[in-house]
């Protein structure tokens, strides 16, 4: 048995999310099926994060155990061949010790959320960004975001379906920057609650539109109440961009 | 009658090209139909460039004449409403003098060609870039490209269907740069021949793979013969990025 770490890129549009679902296609299902076709083995994929339907990944980190011997590059190539035509690509593959775990060994996760802020509808970025027609003040959004950085009870910014035992998390970074008519929000933490990034982004968008005052974000956080949430941003603007491990270079 | 200049962004994937076609959907047809639904008038769209099936535009410049009075912002909004769900967006609209012509007044055109150079297939950029699995030497490509800059007879890099009277063009810029596993080729000229950018990029890709020596690009140019062409790059990596006019700010 060999444990392989995979780096995975996917377009989340056609999937019901990363995690295997009984009622529709998932990224996990696509990779497990590709591995089964290749090896005949029933493999289980573990990943650094779970993503919702429509959420994308540039570099999700995962692992699986395979009995049949493989050179990592050949495994990557063969999995990619079996994954076609699904929009899932294995962009990296490495052998890891048996106690390396894509989820439990992970010490940091980063997301990016992309907004296009303009009147005209999206064309090339349809399904790849959140389209907001009303002008957004990115500086106000960034200022408001700083109230969320640090160790807090994020109950307000957590899905009702979140399974985490503890709503207290440490948010290391929440930066909002404008690049032309694009607004990018970069978030980093050891781990996130379910819907946390989308909930934070949705609320910051209200600040950007002037619907909420900057100080209201801190008040919503202090309320520790999902009902105090401004807005949950749609999934199509969210990208899982990186997972970090102690053995990373 | 008022002449309106439009800035147009589109995803070329579902179209048979920008120009109206008898046998399938076109960007021109989509915009003319939207204008007809809005005004009841039979309008004709003129554009800075013609693009092939699958080629994209970030900021194509076009014009049309409309009898009914419109405030430019309202015209843009109404055209966008009528264009749904086609992946075509009017991102700018301005009134111009009657002698301003999107094609004939244009004094400069810029294209970008995007390559992803990696083993793994594309997911989020499928249909948005040319996927080349073999490693490319971007520095060699850039060096070879400089042989094409300047005033030359570009017969080698011209489609058999090109309708231009004169194959002599002045290429102002052809820069190749690597950004991670992406390679971007930026081309600028007063005007281009049909398939010129794709033909130049395809040939440079042969240099990047080491199939052609750097000096062979200059030889192919000097041959003034379509048969000397290395390769025509596929349309999905090509973006029309800008058109320039004497009255631009």
From TrEMBL, chains A, B:
Subunit annotation: Homodimer.
Domain Pseudouridine synthase I TruA alpha/beta residues, every copy: 8-104, 144-246
Family listed: Belongs to the tRNA pseudouridine synthase TruA family.
One record GO biological process: tRNA pseudouridine synthesis
Protein name as catalogued: tRNA pseudouridine synthase A
Natural source organism: Aurantiacibacter gangjinensis
EC category name: isomerase
Entry keyword set: Isomerase, tRNA processing
Presence of the UniProt keyword 4Fe-4S in the record: no
One annotated GO molecular function: tRNA pseudouridine(38-40) synthase activity
EC numbers for this chain: 5.4.99.12
């Amino acid at each position: 048995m060999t444990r392989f770490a995979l780096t995975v890129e996917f377009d989340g549009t056609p999937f019901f999310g990363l995690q295997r679902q009984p009622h529709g296609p998932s990224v996990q299902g696509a990779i497990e099926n590709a591995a089964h076709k290749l090896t005949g083995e029933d493999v289980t994929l573990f990943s650094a994060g779970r993503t919702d339907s429509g959420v994308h990944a540039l570099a999700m980190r995962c692992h699986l155990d395979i009995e049949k011997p493989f050179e990592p590059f050949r495994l990557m190539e063969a999995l990619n061949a079996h994954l076609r035509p699904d929009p899932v690509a294995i962009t990296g593959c490495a052998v890891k010790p048996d106690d390396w775990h894509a989820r439990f060994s992970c010490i940091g996760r980063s997301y990016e959320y992309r907004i296009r802020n303009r009147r005209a509808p999206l064309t090339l970025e349809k399904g790849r960004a959140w389209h907001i027609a009303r002008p957004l003040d990115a500086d106000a959004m960034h200022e408001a975001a700083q109230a969320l950085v640090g160790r807090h009870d994020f109950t307000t910014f957590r899905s009702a379906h979140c399974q985490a035992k503890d709503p207290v998390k440490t948010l290391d970074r929440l930066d909002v920057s404008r690049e032309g008519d694009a607004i990018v929000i970069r978030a980093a933490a050891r781990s996130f609650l379910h819907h946390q990034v989308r909930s934070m982004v949705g609320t910051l968008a209200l600040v950007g539109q002037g619907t909420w005052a900057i100080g209201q974000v801190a008040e919503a956080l202090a309320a520790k109440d999902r009902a105090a949430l401004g807005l949950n941003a749609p999934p199509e603007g969210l990208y899982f961009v990186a997972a970090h491990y102690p053995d990373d270079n």
